[in-house]
Amino acid sequence: MPAAPLPLLVRHLGRQPYEPVWHAMQAFTDARGPDTPDELWLVEHDPVFTLGQAGRPEHVLAPGDIPVVQVDRGGQVTYHGPGQIVAYPLLDLRRLKVGVRELVHRIEQAIIDTLAEWNIVAARREGAPGVYVGEAKIAALGLRVRHGCSFHGLAFNVAMDLEPFHRINPCGYAGLQVVRMLDLGGPSRLADVEDVLIAELGRQFGLSPQDADPALPRAAA
Fold first, then answer.
1. Is this prediction's pTM over 0.85?
2. 211, pLDDT greater than 80
3. What are the residues facing 125 on neighbouring strands?
4. CA distance to 79, 117, 131, 173, 193, per residue, from 190 (Å)
């Protein structure tokens, strides 16, 4: 008999400010051992611009009242806010035998397959991580790998206000269009999309999603 799939502990964190969750991800990744189960954190962030390690300040055009946070993920500048699913897959890539390129590919595929549930046709772009519907970006990726484990993750536009994207060059591209599911016939409730996304991420990584305490783990808090 094949071994049962390893668990993926899913934490629904609700709406949270950005920085405490970021620091909790770092702490979780630094504290985990070879037997620590993989986790998936789902969160809706208060409005924030985050500037990745490759991010250039000139791509933040006019932040106004929205804070800008320099972070340790890959990629350029993006926006997080209410109505957007932010998902953080905290995975032991060595145990899963997954490289970084494959990690990106599988996360993108999970988003593409989630959108297909609502008959929204999406695709990836070579050299520009994320997921696109036509010319417009619907999901951004920014990842970090430390000690063979991943943190940070994906931001998926469901029913958010897109105006703040006009205040930046999204992902470093001037004039890059962004789009949300709600305008493509998708649902407005994040929970409906989260349920499908969790299942698709579990399928991509061969893990069995299981609900966990909807709070940051104690080692990381």
1. yes
2. yes
3. 128
4. 17, 14, 18, 27, 5
